Amino acid sequence: MLKNTLTYFVLLFNLIQCLLTEINGVSPIPAFKPTLRHLHAATVIDDKLYILSGMDDTIGGIVGGTQFFYLNVSAPFNTQMPLYWHDLTSKNIVPPQIGVTAVKGGADNNTLILYGGRNLTNIESKALVYAYDTQGNSWNIPTISGENHIKRRSLTAVVDYQGKVYLFGGKLLEFDSFVNDMITLDTINFRWGKGSSTNAPSSRVNYGATLLPNQNIIYIGGGNSLNESLPLDEVFIYDTNNNNWSTKKTSGLIPSNRYGLTAVLGLDGEQVIVYGGLGNKNIIINPEESLYTLNINTFEWSIPKITGNIPSCRYMHRANVIGNYMVATFGVGYNITEGDILLLDISDKNEFKWTTTFYPPPPTSAPAPAPAPPSTPSKNKSVVIGLATGFSLLCAFTVGMFFLYKRNKNRKVKVNTLHIPNGKLDNQSGQKTVETTNKVDNHDEEVKQV
After folding, report:
1. Contact 351, 68 (CB under 8 A)
2. Which end of the chain is more exposed for a tag (fewer CB within 10 A), N or C?
3. Percent of the chain with pLDDT over 70
């Protein structure tokens, strides 16, 4: 009985999954193979890794990429197998650009905010910001109040917990010059602001930056206007609460100069993981020296213990922390046999592991979102149908299992229960007479009706 029940449950679960997948228009078949790229944008929102823009390396690196796509990271995958990329290019209104930067923001924290970049077509886009609604699957150019700014590229956007984006440095497109000022963007009210430039780092592009637990932002390395890689013997801290800069000297195994690197916060919140980059005079960095960690309490560099097959060193890539992994996407300098995605398991701070298999984190209970404004029935039609279908099937399954259980129980009663009419014994056998009831037959009928 238990074995059959589990079988029915698995079949029903698969049926619900298939129905919901079909209703919501999600295909399990790989949609397409993205082109190689670098200087692109990679942003994680909910359970999707969105990628767009960047230099298209399949045709000599002279055209900005027009593809817009995402990877569902709520399911396991292997980087050596065809990845289930989902193509959104038909919805894209962003011109082909390089050196863009993107974050997650907006009132509900589910909007992809894309800033800057250089358009490689003849007509340069004047829009500084594009916003993609991941719920409505649509782009728009938001109206932003406050002082307007000159478009810039090759910087790293960092967003805080209040949806405020910090944009430091970069290269001005209009004057072809490097800058070291700080501008901000409130992605909830869409208002420009300006941060302090006092004691700021020198002008730079393609640096590493990430938000620390204390709401400070750390800036590491990069390249200057002389096409030189900058040293990592010092890092720069921007205090978002007090709007000021400070410089920290580093120690330990200090990495060589590099730009086009990435920096992410480790899962323990006590170290920054720096990966990749290109050395001074465009020297390719050895794979064994491509990964470092910086203790944010002591500002000491070290090379972590690493297992697995060390990949080639990439630069101009992007890196995001998803679950237990640092996920590096695309870039320059790698063998395509390694796959477009690199996975570094950082769950054990004492031993990182390069791997090819991704396992999503278990679901966690999240606080209830703020009430959303009423939406039109057409917008939520697929969601309502999907939920109704799943709920109906689940109810049918539950009722069915209840009656199967009752039928099994009453069959047992049928065999073991003796009914004695008038309290008499059978004259021939001396055994009590057994009569069955119609109770089991009635339950069988009820199960058929369900």
Report:
1. no
2. N
3. 72
Distance from C-alpha of 9 to C-alpha of 393, rounded to nearest angstrom? 11
Convert the pLDDT of each residue in 6-44 to its tens digit: 333 333 433 444 444 434 444 445 458 898 999 999 999
- Calpha distance 294→337 (Å, rounded): 30
pLDDT digits (tens, 9 = 90+) for 155-169: 999 999 999 999 999
Beta carbons of 173 and 153 less than 8 angstroms apart: yes
Tens-digit pLDDT profile for residues 100-126: 999 999 999 999 999 999 887 766 667
**Coil vs helix vs strand at 11:** helix
Single-letter residue type at 261? L
Report the 10 Å Cβ neighbour count for 432.
13
Nearest-angstrom CA–CA distance, 443 and 36: 63
Q: Give yes or no for a contact between 312 and 335, defined as CB atoms under 8 angstroms apart.
A: yes
Other Cβ atoms less than 10 A from the Cβ of 421: the count is: 8
Q: Over the range 396-420, which residues count as b (16 or more CB within 10 Å of their CB) and which as e? A: ebeeeeebbeebeebeeeeeeeeee
- Edge-to-edge, what's the strand order for the sheet holding 318-322? 306-307, 352-355, 341-345, 325-329, 318-322
All structural domains of the chain: 31-358 (2.120.10.80)
Which amino acid belongs to residue 332? V
- C-alpha to C-alpha distance for 274 and 250, rounded to whole angstroms: 14
Backbone angles phi and psi of 371, in degrees to 5: -55, 135
Q: Contact 167/191 with Cβ under 8 angstroms?
A: no
Q: Considering the entire predicted model, what is its pTM?
A: 0.75
Residue type, 177: S
**Running DSSP on this structure, what letter comes out for residue 309?**
-
The tokens describing 362, both together, are: 């278990």
Q: Are 249 and 237 in contact (CB under 8 A)?
A: no
pLDDT tens by residue, 228-264? 999 999 999 999 999 999 999 999 999 999 999 999 9
| Per-residue pLDDT tens digits for 166-185 | 999 999 987 789 999 999 99
